[in-house]
Amino acid sequence: MKWAFVVCAMVALSECLIQVPLEKGKTAREYLEEQGLWEEYRLKYPYKPMVKFDHRFAVGDESMTNDADLAYYGIISIGTPPQSFKVIFDTGSSNLWVPSIYCSSPACNNHDKFNPGTSSTYRHSGLSLQIQYGTGSMTGFLGYDTVEVGGISVKNQIFGLSESEAPFMQYMRADGILGLAYPRLSASGATPVFDNMMREGLVNQDMFSVYLSSNSEQGSVVTFGGIDPNHYTGSISWIPLSNELYWQITVDSVTVNGQVVACNGGCQAIVDTGTSLIVGPQSSISNINSYVGASSQNGDYVVNCNSIGQMPDVTFHIHGQEFTIPASAYVRQSQYYGCRTGFGNGGDSLWILGDVFIRQYYSIFSRAQNMVGLAKAV
């Protein structure tokens, strides 16, 4: 599969790492801004990042939301002969699903669609699937087929085939989603792809890791079965999970210039590749944005683009370690809407450490130890 490659240490072939390159494409927001449609879209499909982590859907229906800033996707294939799809590798959900030929929603019409009739290895399950969104839903059914990820062939993998999709999906570059959270989160009891990889001994270690490039469209990668030392510097900080459902950890505090500005006394955060921003409770996010000099405008927190060099770092204190995000990393610039921060309003007390955080810290997800490892990305 031309989109995948294998990295092996010189010592032994058993040290091979299975890697899937991620492309950093144009986001839905960028596309809509170019078309002059962003304001209309934003009002019609408001961003509700915490819907994805609503515990009412933790078992049964899987929750998603319309994150217009998602940029990273990788290529997988399903079926025999293989049919290729662009998917978001999402540590905040557990199901694999792609559009199907039975879907007539506008969102399906401009994406690749799986045709089970042309795959000799496809089996129908007879089970339905519904994925709840903040502004709609995806409905479909479950089937089994060979799924190839990074050159690893997972036979009889259960996956979703959409029959209808929420309108906002038509603006997203990716066709579907490959969930990498725990199986308890999976809709309809579908076994996640990585769980099957582990069970069948297809990976060298029961872990995967994610590197997201900050500037280049190329270079981002998901590594299955281990850690790639080329993508980080210094030591790895291992943080035990506080909830083995998502990749959830405890944050001790958030500071700016040494002063606690949020998460005083500790809070819970999910390390999520399927969320673009750092998201937290509105009062906390407002406080952070105030301290860095941002003002609220049409749902975003905006700053003067000429002030980025003078803006302070924001530091997350986790498990006795400091994880600092400089202004150059948390400010995003648009040719149409100026500069805005990567700190977004969420719901209750839960935080999401999304791509703004992961771009700065190489993230390792260990199922063997139920820990997240973080190291300074390079």
From TrEMBL:
Disulfide bonds join 103-108, 263-267, 305-339. Residues 72-375 form the Peptidase A1 domain. Its EC number is 3.4.23.1. It comes from the Eukaryota. Residues 1-16 form the signal peptide. Gene3D superfamilies: 6.10.140.60, Acid Proteases. One of its GO terms (biological process) is proteolysis. It holds the Pfam family Asp. Belongs to the peptidase A1 family. This is pepsin A. It comes from Collichthys lucidus. The lineage of its organism: Eukaryota, Metazoa, Chordata, Craniata, Vertebrata.
